[in-house]
Specification:
It is built from 12 helices and 8 strands. It is of the alpha/beta class. A hairpin with a 6-residue loop joins strand 2 and strand 3. The protein starts with a helix and ends with a helix.
């Protein structure tokens, strides 16, 4: 009996249709992750329905094995400028999950966000798996080095989570419509390297949101006509906050048979990473202060959603 149960829960093989039996469960995870927090997330998610399943299936099937996971959203107008906490938790969780299932992943950000990114990676990733793009004219040299790493390590996927990208005027803008190019390295260029691309976002201004028709973001999101990112990804995961989208991806891996990621479904893992981010100066992106909360959500609201997604996965 035990061996039969294990066989039932084993990850589906590459090319097998068996993984489609998990589609209803992953769809429920996707819908829960997109629970609206006031930005029209549930409506935006309908333009990318099924993409969470397709993104997770690539890793379950073995089509994708190694990824760059790109995050970091800098808040220059805060009293103590730093990167926000939404994004780094989910990005670190995705990196950990890919490594847990036998792949490999590198956490990528830029010099403005570096302290928070390194805080997120503490005790989770080796230091050489944190890649930081420099400020200024040396970005091209850094990108060339990253291309070499991609070739040497056979990296096949780029995942963007809560990483701002250029709007229609070419400038990256925050949710208030403010141009933050001065504090943002052009990491959207990683989307044009010929790798498979996955985007995770919650507001319309993140890399990947070019996957959605621009009129949807313009009609649903405040300042949508100014901030909508034009860079698409092949799959897009829309969530109420981006950390929930990252957790939904990991929960989908678990639901599709990868029990190795079980530890990442525990609320305490998330609390630990967020504590490290806060210690490194990370900000609540709505309240703009250095506290261990995300996007202005109460701890109860934020962690109840993390736990609900974990429960759906089980």
């Amino acid at each position: 009996m035990a061996s039969a149960i294990q066989a039932t829960k084993a990850p589906a093989r590459k090319g097998s249709l068996a993984c489609y039996r998990w589609y209803p469960k992953v769809s429920r995870i996707q819908a829960k992750a997109a629970q609206d927090v006031g930005r029209g997330n549930e409506t935006l998610m309908t333009f990318a329905r099924g993409d969470l399943f397709k993104a997770a299936r690539r890793f379950v099937s073995g089509e994708s094995r190694k990824a760059l996971v790109v995050t970091g959203f800098y808040i220059p107008k805060a009293e103590h400028p730093a990167a926000e906490s939404d994004g780094p938790v989910g990005a670190t969780e995705i990196c950990a999950a890919i490594r847990d299932i036998g792949g490999d992943a590198w956490l990528v950000s830029d010099a403005w966000c570096e302290p928070v990114i390194r805080g997120a990676a503490k005790d989770v990733l080796p230091q050489d798996h944190v890649l930081i793009a420099p400020k200024g004219d040396s970005f091209d040299a850094w990108l060339d080095g990253t291309k070499t790493l991609i070739a040497e390590q056979h990296i096949d996927t780029v995942i963007f989570i809560e990483r701002v990208g250029p709007a229609s005027d070419g400038y990256p803008r925050n949710m208030r419509g403010i141009n933050i190019l001065e504090w943002t390295a052009p990491l959207s260029r990683l989307a044009s390297l010929g790798l498979h691309t996955i985007g995770i976002g919650d507001g319309g201004n993140e890399i990947g949101m070019g996957h959605i028709e621009s009129y949807a973001i313009e009609d649903i999101v405040d300042h949508g006509d100014e901030i909508a990112c034009t860079v698409p990804t092949q799959e897009l995961i829309v969530a109420g906050c981006s950390n929930w989208g990252g957790h939904a991806f990991v929960c989908s891996l678990y639901a599709m048979g990868h029990r190795e990621v079980a530890g990442l479904l525990d609320e305490q893992w998330h609390r630990g990473v967020l504590a490290n981010i806060t210690a490194a100066g990370g900000l609540d992106g709505v309240k703009l202060v250095n506290i261990p909360t995300v996007d202005g959500l109460s701890e109860r609201q934020y962690y109840s959603q993390i736990n609900a997604l974990s429960q759906l996965a089980r």
